[in-house]
Amino acid sequence: AVGEPILEVAGLTKRYGGVVAVDDVGFTVPAGKIMGLIGPNGAGKTTCFNMISGAIAPTAGTVRFLGEEIQGRKPHVGALKGLTRTFQNLQVFASTDVVGNVYMGRYRKGRAGIVRGMLGLQGREQYAHEEIAREVLEAMRLGDVAGSGASDLPFGRQRMMEVCRALASEPALLLLDEPMAGLSGKERDMLAALLRRLRDAGLTIVLVEHDVAQVMSLADTVAVLDDGVLIAHGDPETVRNDPKVIVAYLGTD
Ligand code: ATP
């Protein structure tokens, strides 16, 4: 239900030798909300995402997703429960078309399809997955390029295609790692409008983003990391005016 915690992070810590990349970070993300995770370069944002999604194991701390602890588990554990992430760098399957790229998002559903395939239902199952991929593209106004080669699309549309792929997995929680990087101002506004629409439809979103202005206008809550430490967490207006945040961004003491 909207407002109930979907993601609860507590004491999350990652050490690399003497470097503490993430230091005792805790926050809760309510269902149906957007949380922005911001901070200067090297603050530990991607490392947090990696621990939440299961790409790396934390040194300490817990990640609770839909009530279940998933820290240190492989990425498919969260994925099967509805946790989907995108990456900072584009992950484009250049040899296939746009709909094929979005179809990849159905992978965890597709595994169930293998069982159905053994029962002789695979053709139908595959068709259904492709239909869903097309529907997502239509809804995101990429229907006209469904048949285009993925690598032929301009960068901004490849980014949108990635969001479509993530949506095709029908996530409960979507982690977006710098989705606006490389987009034009107009494309950023379009993506922000899309994310608001998804949030209003009930999706929970956590985004790491360098465009602080976009995050402040888009997110319901904002968490700020600096040098691995969570220095602020709250509504955008409060966070924006927090002296610690201002210092972190201006780099003065
Ligand atoms: P950016 O905004 O530049 O992407 P970030 O906030 O995502 O930065 P991280 O990439 O999470 O920051 O890095 C946090 C810190 O941890 C940095 O000091 C980085 O050098 C260090 N770090 C990250 N991964 C490793 C690793 N595999 N080995 C050693 N140090 C690492």
UniProtKB/TrEMBL annotation:
Residues 7-252 form the ABC transporter domain. It is found in: Cell membrane. This is Branched-chain amino acid ABC transporter ATP-binding protein/permease. The chain holds residues 389 to 641 of 656 of the full protein.
